[in-house]
Write a structure and sequence with these properties.
229 residues, 10 helices
């Protein structure tokens, strides 16, 4: 995967993720509409590939106003990842040399890898994740309506324990997928399925779309390091 193609794919996926996020605010207060309607228009422009340099810069500036409006990344990790991808993309589009572009895009890929590894490390360091209690609590007490039909799973102790360890081990071992293209593709499909399940079960829909937007960077990085087509 070439750098140019990876950047263009990132623009499209990030724009689609921002469109989804922006639509959620179109029926909110007028103050929010003033922020997210322009974001929606700029995101469509990014997907279409129109003046992507200045569009990405405008999205970064608008993102700062959104941070001020909500006094920080109100949606937690998904908003932080959104800003990270956007800032890396904006820098990549404005930097004149390919070497510097590769460093910025490689940094984004590294952050994606760390997002999984650190999440797994934090979980496995927590006794409640190791014994399955953390996932049990999530299934029992999630307020998202779709979770109600899955609450009986919390009574299956062995299954919950197995699922907990499967998540932790996958996240911890994710960096190893860089060593082979089939492993990386399998790892990204598994990760996407994990995010999709969280979106359906617990309402974490933003994580699914925004993490997908970072996948081109790691596919490019593997190609850049190992020459994998």
């Amino acid at each position: 995967m070439s750098l140019d193609f990876a950047i263009r794919l990132t623009e499209i996926l990030l724009g689609l993720a921002f469109i989804q996020q922006s639509i959620e605010h179109l029926w909110a207060s007028r103050g929010e509409q003033r922020l997210f309607l322009p974001r929606l228009i700029l995101s469509i422009s990014l997907v279409l590939g129109f003046q992507t340099q200045w569009t990405s810069l405008a999205l970064v500036l608008l993102g700062l106003f959104i941070l001020k409006r909500f006094q920080g990344p109100y949606n937690g990790g998904s908003d932080r990842m959104s800003l990270l991808i956007l800032c890396c993309l904006c820098l990549t589009l404005f930097i004149p040399t390919q070497t510097a572009q590769e460093l910025v895009f490689g940094y984004l890929a590294l952050q994606l890898v760390l997002s999984y590894f650190i999440s797994g490390w934090v979980k496995i360091s927590n006794p409640e994740w190791r014994n399955g209690q953390a996932l049990d609590d999530v299934l029992r007490y999630s307020a998202y309506p779709a979770s109600e039909s899955f609450r009986p799973l919390a009574d299956r102790t062995r299954l919950i324990w197995t699922m907990s360890w499967a998540v932790m081990l996958f996240e911890l071992l994710f960096p190893l997928t860089l060593y082979a293209q089939p492993l990386l593709i399998m790892g990204l499909i598994t990760a996407a399925a994990f995010h999709f399940a969280n979106a359906c079960l617990f309402g974490l829909n933003r994580f699914f779309w925004i993490w997908l937007a970072a996948y081109p960077s790691i596919l490019w990085l593997q190609y850049r390091i190992f020459g994998v087509v």
